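Summary: Need help interpreting a holo structure output

Steps to reproduce:
1. Submit the protein chain below together with the SMILES for 2-acetamido-2-deoxy-beta-D-glucopyranose.
2. Request a joint structure prediction with the ligand placed.
3. Inspect the structure token block that comes back.

Expected: a single structure record containing both the chain and the bound molecule.
Actual: see attached output.

Input attached:
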Amino acid sequence: MRSNIILAAAIARMASAAPAPQMFDFAAVLEAPSPSVTGPPQTAVANATSIYSVDTASLASVISSQVTSAVTASITGASASAASTELPTSSALQKRSAISTVPTTASTTTTQGQSSTLTSSSSTACPTTPEAGTYCGFINPEDPCAPQPDGYGPKVVPDTPAAFSAYPAFQANANSAVTPANYDLVFKDLNAATSANSYLGFYTLKTYDVNGCANHCDTTNLCTAFNIYIERDPSLNPTANGDSSNSTGGYCPDPSSITNYKCSLWGASIDATSATNTGQGRLNFTTVVVASNGYDKTNHTTPVAPPAYDPPKNCTGGAISAGGNYWLGSTFYPGPFNPTVCGIYAQAQVALNKQTAKAKGASCYTPVNMFNAYTIHKNGVAQGTYCSIFNTVLSPAYSGFRGAWSGNEFFGVRQSWAFSLSAQDSGNW
Ligand SMILES: *[C@@H]1O[C@H](CO)[C@@H](O)[C@H](O)[C@H]1NC(C)=O
Ligand SMILES: *[C@@H]1O[C@H](CO)[C@@H](O)[C@H](O)[C@H]1NC(C)=O
Ligand SMILES: *[C@@H]1O[C@H](CO)[C@@H](O)[C@H](O)[C@H]1NC(C)=O
Ligand SMILES: *[C@@H]1O[C@H](CO)[C@@H](O)[C@H](O)[C@H]1NC(C)=O
Ligand SMILES: *[C@@H]1O[C@H](CO)[C@@H](O)[C@H](O)[C@H]1NC(C)=O
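--- attached output ---
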């Protein structure tokens, strides 16, 4: 009990003592290109879904190519190893100010796009080689005025956006839904769907099946949240070639509607802030989103450690922004929360440190023994994975940075975890 009180005090002191984290690089977050897909597509709502999958090999080659300089920490060797048992209030932290004027010496901060891919899941593979110009041998839903797939929900009469929005059964679906075990309900019955960099893919469902959607999330790598909603979609692909007197080439700017149950999956926490997609116009057709519920298990999920790392420790205080004397660099990867990218970055950095030390004939190299991975949420919406690497294992008590303002945008830290190598690297050959 007593030691808990001391720890809490240490965290509080550190949080207030570190208002300007020397290691948070706004530019890295601001300049990183967003993934090209941040939510389910508006067109072709087939039960054909693309689920985010991480191509570790190509990710590793991209990250390695971006790690271009060897780095060192300002506390190294035996003194660095001792840090694992120290708290940030110890001498190591006092020395932190010494490095604050030269923060970039250890920096290898880079930005990059996603080097993971959206690949079709096996459930959507065509059973046979499809005929050219068709979709799995059927009509291509992207053709002019092609019938659109699915649409398992009721047909709303009259067929207008207003009647769809007001349809009582949809609100009843949202309001009577039971929250699946291990999830928290984070929003209910909104008229907007989630949109964020942490998008993983979507499914269409036959009913407002919250448990079915949870099951899709539970079986999808990196998924920690889902959004289920009902969408008014066009029955035909809206097209306006020619006009109503000449329909050659397709003329159906405002087809009748169908009702889709959609289930989208997310690789970071969601809340009402990220529910911003209220539907669009497609020519004269109006897409409408209703009965949108969000469920989140991010707080109940311990991320999987990359190979060679111990199970991670929860940095409940936020990001590790002290520990500057042990810090080797940081980088940011837009997309879902994926500590694997931080592990790859750590490996790429130590490989370069070794190579550089060897070339110089040095007797040791700077190891990378720990990384801190967390998500950055801009004004509440998940942006991607921020990684900081360290030459030694620091206690989670070093974590105290919860976020910072840049202009009127708040960059908040969530789900922060510390990963350390199971076998510590001494840096000696
Ligand atoms: C979508 O495809 C999966 C796998 O083929 C199937 O189990 C599911 O029933 C389909 N969903 C709908 C709504 O057709
Ligand atoms: C009908 O519309 C098509 C496609 O826009 C166009 O190519 C064709 O010339 C039009 N025919 C007539 C008779 O206007
Ligand atoms: C579609 O919208 C345009 C522009 O608002 C309008 O001129 C046209 O009459 C509409 N067509 C249909 C079929 O509703
Ligand atoms: C990690 O810590 C955060 C902040 O205290 C907490 O909300 C979350 O539930 C913890 N995660 C797990 C998996 O225990
Ligand atoms: C998760 O934990 C954080 C920190 O304790 C808290 O602010 C947030 O509201 C929690 N999320 C949910 C869905 O309960």
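--- end attachment ---

Reviewer comment: Residues 1-22, 89-134 have pLDDT under 50 and may be disordered. Residues 241-242, 246, 248-249 surround 2-acetamido-2-deoxy-beta-D-glucopyranose (ligand 2) (CB under 6 Å).
Status: needs-info
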